[in-house]
């Protein structure tokens, strides 16, 4: 479609802006500080609540069924502190994944497309319905310049963006939509998703090891002495914990491996499944890891609280609470 000397095309995905270009906008960051990203999807919210309940159940069984009745004080203290710390890190990573806009605020070059770039950068997500004729006419595009839009959400489409039917937005570097975190895994929250899968795998393995020790000690001694609960209740609780631990360990270990492989190859799962040829400069191995986790390898890589601003939450509370993006 020809309009005002530029072309406006409906495409599903096509590069619009260079990935390595940068655009610093303090106003956009300030606006983003006032927003909370949350997907109001019924299935996703149920799955997210189930995730928390399953972690709380595992913590209950480990703490009150296995560790507190133990006669070995240091065994209980060390394993209790370790398991609960891993559980807090897992749930914190889950929250950061769920409440973080999956599209990076790192934006776009300061060219004639600056209005587009600021719109894409505002709030992180690609705005819905901004690819209108009136809006395009106000962009002052160069003659012959091609602009691509998503026909599903009618928004201007940046490079490596794909439309999510659940989020109802175009998500840049979208890997997949995960109902367990009720969000898309994209450019900005992939790090937290990797940490979430890693910590869930660790607490699952830890719970399975503790269950093995508990069964061994109960069989070798007296069932009535190895737990404060009755033997049938203890067995049922530990069997459910073993099943939960085995399933979650298998699932999250596989997801962790695929995410690391995706990061090291700078290729999302959607791009791999669609066999899309890279039109961007790929960041392989350690360069890809540093681009996702930020900077040189350090303990900050495994810290889900890195970059968290308490003052921003307090400012939101004073100004009447957060705004939900979706």
User: What is the average per-residue confidence, as pLDDT, rounded to a whole number?
Assistant: 76
Order of helices and strands: EEHEHHHHEEEEEEHHHHHE
**Biggest sheet, spatial arrangement of strands:** 1-2-4-5
End-to-end distance: 30 Å
Q: Report the major sheet.
A: 4 strands, mixed
- Please work out how many helical segments DSSP would assign: 10
What characteristic shape results from the CA principal axes? elongated
Computed Rg: 24 Å
Domain Palmitoyltransferase DHHC: 149-275
Catalytic activity: L-cysteinyl-[protein] + hexadecanoyl-CoA = S-hexadecanoyl-L-cysteinyl-[protein] + CoA
Enzyme class: transferase
EC number: 2.3.1.225
What does this entry look like structurally?
50% of the residues lie in helices and 10% in strands. The two termini are 30 Å apart. The longest helix has 35 residues, at 231-265. A four-stranded mixed sheet has the order 1-2-4-5. Strands 3-10 form a two-stranded parallel ribbon. Residues 1-34, 105-124 and 320-325 have low confidence and may be disordered. By secondary structure, it is an alpha/beta fold. The protein has helices at 26-33, 42-67, 73-99, 114-121, 133-137, 190-220, 231-265, 269-273, 286-293, 310-318, and strands at residues 2-3, 6-10, 35-36, 146-150, 155-156, 161-164, 169-172, 176-178, 183-185, 323-324. The protein is elongated, with a radius of gyration of 24 Å. Helix 2 (42-67) runs antiparallel to helix 3. One of its GO terms (cellular component) is membrane. It is a multi-pass membrane protein. Its EC number is 2.3.1.225. Belongs to the DHHC palmitoyltransferase family.
